[in-house]
Amino acid sequence: MHPDEIVVNNGKRDLTLNELARMQPGMDRLMAEVGPRLHRCYYAALAGNWPLAAYYDKSAIKQLALSAESRPKYEPEMTAYLRDDYAPVTRAIRTRDREAFLSAWTVMVDRANALHGVFGKPYIGWQTPGQPPDDLDLTAGMQS
């Protein structure tokens, strides 16, 4: 059966499998979801709220892995990035090592921006926001 012959319903209308596939987010939308997660991860770690940092770290990793899965042309670099450049951030969060976290964070951000250039988008330069998110209590759940 051809994908244009397979029809699903999203609760509002019938869609062919190909129409549904075309609605899947591109890398721009996927990455727009990574930035806020990393922003929160960074400032949670700075606040010493390691469980919150771990929560956003895990969420960012899942989003980055989804990016590699849904956009195969990025898969080899994204897999290597997660393994080599991002994993030290996760390790520092697990060990609650602020200095290791800050060092790994810098490497992770620099490498992400280098990869933007590798994929022909050197004009994308992500940076850690200069202020903590104002919609999140970074001390929630921490014991006094």
Report on the structure:
The chain has 144 residues and is mainly α. The chain has a domain at 27-118. It has helices spanning 17-22, 27-46, 50-70, 75-95, 98-118, and strands at 7-9, 14-16. The chain has a two-stranded antiparallel sheet with strand order 1-2. A hairpin with a 4-residue loop joins strand 1 (7-9) and strand 2.
Radius of gyration computed on alpha carbons: 18 Å
Biggest sheet: strands, sense, closure? 2 strands, antiparallel
Order of helices and strands: EEHHHHH
Identify the quaternary structure here: single chain
Count helical runs: 5
Which structural class matches the secondary elements? mainly alpha
Distance between the termini: 61 Å
Number of strands: 2
Mean pLDDT: 92
> Low-confidence parts, pLDDT < 50 over ≥5 residues?
none
Report strand order across the widest sheet.
1-2
- CA-based shape: globular
Q: Beta-strand percentage?
A: under 5%
Helix content: 55-70%
